[in-house]
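Async update (no meeting this week)

Hi team, since we skipped the sync, here's where things stand on the single-chain job. The sequence we agreed to prioritize is pasted below, unchanged from the tracker. I ran it this morning and attached the output directly underneath so nobody has to dig for it. Comments welcome in thread, and please keep replies under the output.
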Amino acid sequence: MDSSQIGILISMVAYMALMLGIGIYFARKNENVGDYYLGGRRLGPLVTAMSAEASDMSSWLLMGLPGVAYLSGVADAAWTAIGLAAGTYINWLVVARRIRTYSHELDAITVPEYFSKRYHDKKNILNCIAALIIIVFFIPYTASGFAACGKLFASLFGADYFWAMIISAAVIVAYTSLGGFLAASTTDLIQSIVMTVALVVILSFGIYTAGGWDAVVANSQALPGYISFNKTFDPASGTADKYGIITIVSTLAWGLGYFGMPHILLRFMAIEDREKLKLSRRIATTWVVI
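Output:
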């Protein structure tokens, strides 16, 4: 392990220690079930916005989508980004205020409980169905995040993938379980800042390493369909493939997922004042676009 790897390892260990510290801190601050599951509905607009978006923009943003863009060009990543930006804005505009208002009036602190109380589900059928859907679909969703952690450590340090994944998962589960919603939201805020800095620095460094913006454009133009919105580059054949209207619509539809993501809806429910949702919407949309 060289000096640069040691530096990265120290930084990541310190980061994990900070996350655990936040979990322990909020474990002492939580006074009741409402605090643990919804932060006592006292999130500020900045934390609400940044935690909502950072909890969504997980490993796929830093590893998956850039990989697709690198492999096939602009089209897939660009249409995905447009769909996500539009979906984010509409979600904050249409859903946020309503679910904040009704969940507060109904004293609902989880999404399944909100559905049950909102639609007078006396037999708790909606509650059970919503909880089951979350469990079934969030197990692979969460597992993919743990897998990304394992791959990150394996690629950076040559560590064993399995144990890297287990240790990362243990740290994440520990601070989330200890501190509850406030710990998760606070760590999300920190992670959103780290993600922003990392993406800006990596972009700037990449352009510099490639020889400047003109060199980046020239290299991209040398690959057929690489910087087109209606074509993609096929690395196997070295030719351009058509990126049709059906594919474009399908890619834009990524933004529709936001309306049903419980980890985002919970942030809407947890903001301290529904009148501050407008500011949160502006912050969140700006961050997603960047």
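Quick observations from my side:
The longest strand covers residues 231-234.
The radius of gyration is 21 Å.
Reply here if anything looks off.
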